[in-house]
Amino acid sequence: MRSLPRLWLCADLGLRSIDALLAAVDAACATDAALVWLRAPREIAGAEHLAAARALRSVTTLHGALLLVGDRLDVALAAGADGVHLGEASVSPSEARGMLGSGAVVSRAVHDAAGIASHRDAADALVLAPFLAVPGKGPALGARGFASLRASAPASFVVALGGLATPADVHAAFASGASAVALRRGLDAPALRDAARALP
To answer: What is the pTM (predicted TM-score) of this model?
Structure first.
């Protein structure tokens, strides 16, 4: 299992401007060792996406944080990101690694046993979701469901994503076997980041 940060911060261009995103990531990474995952709406222009990725690359480099770009291998390459997060409709982890290089970090979204079985040997991390209820994302796994699926990939780095809104949620994810948590609210919620950092 590759060693990766236990705190993943979702930097979502759909939720705030680039300047606001950079400020939030800078503040969060100044106090927490983290991986930053750049997410963007499908309709965003390529130039804007790349500009955001390059700006985030500067911030993450300053703090020694990792940067993954969601789905866009071209943007990840051009920005000098550490790797890519692949959605269900993306290329395979092996194909992504072939394009990005052997040292790239490649994570893959998974939601069930079939997804885990298909990608656990090729991806550096499996992002398993939704841990808790998220509108439009299907039934929540819950702590029991997450733990059961996580047990099917004991050697994998498994990230819990979805609905983690309180420190208790973060604790529950780690208690269910998560190697890390991905937080969309983490940029604005120091208490969530503190909860991830405090656990052994």
So the answer is: 0.95
